[in-house]
Each structure stands twice: as structure tokens, then as C-alpha cells.
Amino acid sequence: QMCIQDSPKSWVRLTLKDGLYSGAIYDGSELFFIEPNTLVRGEVEKNVANMNTLANSSKLIIYKASDVELNATCALEIPNPNTSTFDYSAFVTDLASMTASVAGRSINVKIMADTEYNTINNGDALTRMLSEMNVVDGIFSQQVNVELDITDTLVLTDNGTLNTTNSVDLVYNLQTEVAQTIGNVGVTHLF
Questions:
Q1: pLDDT of residue 98
Q2: How far does Cα 168 stand from its chain's mean position?
Q3: 142-to-64, 172, 186, 189 alpha-carbon distances in Å
Q4: What is the pLDDT of residues 13-27, one digit of tens each?
Q5: Taking the CB of residue 75, how many other CB atoms lie within 10 A of it?
Q6: Is 169 exposed, middle or buried (0-12, 13-18, 19+ CB in 10 A)?
Q7: Model confidence over 124-133: pLDDT tens digits?
Q8: E-assigned strands of 6-49?
Q9: What is the pLDDT of residue 12?
Q10: Which of 94, 106, 121, 135 counts the highest number of beta carbons within 10 A?
């Protein structure tokens, strides 16, 4: 497990692909994300005045989680009307509460990518999913003492019933798909 020297509460989770790192660094109080600018450029362009200079001068973008504006794009996220940015400390507190009764302090996870996720990742959804889960495992294992065990990966070639843009319907359809055809090993996450 990597950490920052002389910072015992820190952790580092990085993935190297095509000569570029992505991942996260937690310094003991602030969470930072590291991404190739090609992956986050569209979102950053909205908030950086001279994006062309940034894109031409840097292959990586590092940003603080606390600077991320929330838009509740996941059906399981409930927007907090009192804040518009990500509160990592509150997030970890919520995770600790939700995982307090996890038997054996381990959760089996199956990860799936739909066709859109695979397309935006240039046909390499598997690598991107594993990279993102590396960060998620860092958060779970280092912050709430729960290990995530990836039991299976699946990149869909046809979304089937997972074809709605309504997030609540999508979660329901995913639950049905898992129960009827995939089998539940613990948690299934759809990218």
C-alpha cells in the first residue's frame, strides 16, 4: 500500500496506462484525483478559462474532490441542498455507517460496463473500470476498513433492458438483470 512519506493517514492508488497515471491521493485530510486530461477535459473546460493552454501544457489534471460540483447523476445519490460540492469527510462517515455490519469486513463486487461506457473509453472499459475500482478500494480499505473483492467483470455488447436514461428505472432494471441472469455475489456496480 502506497502512502505519502511522514503522513500515516495518507494513501495513494494509481494506475499506469499508456504512460499516464490516473487514480487518487489522500493526504490525510484532502482527496485529490489524477486523470489524463483527455478523460476529463470536457468537464474541466467548463470551469477553466484557458483550457487550451492547460491541455497543451499538461497530460495530467490533478484536482481536489472538494472542488467537484455535485449533480447527483447516480440513482443512489441524493443531492444535499446545503452544498453543491463533494464533502469527502461526510462521504466517509456515511460509508462507515453503511458498512458497520459487513461480515468479515469484505464485500464481493461484480463490475459491469454498458455499451456507452465502453464507447467513451475507446473500447477499453475493462481497464478503466479496474482503474476506478482501485480508487474505490482505496477509499473503502483505508478509510472504513472494508476490503472490496472484485469477483467478476463484464463488458456488455448489448445493453438489453439497461437502456433507460431514468436513473431510478436503470437501478431497478439492473436489480432485475442481476437477479434473473447474472446472479448476485454481493454488490453489482454498473458503469
A1: 84
A2: 19
A3: 18, 31, 20, 20
A4: 999 988 888 999 999
A5: 15
A6: middle
A7: 999 999 999 9
A8: 11-17, 20-26, 31-36
A9: 93
A10: 135
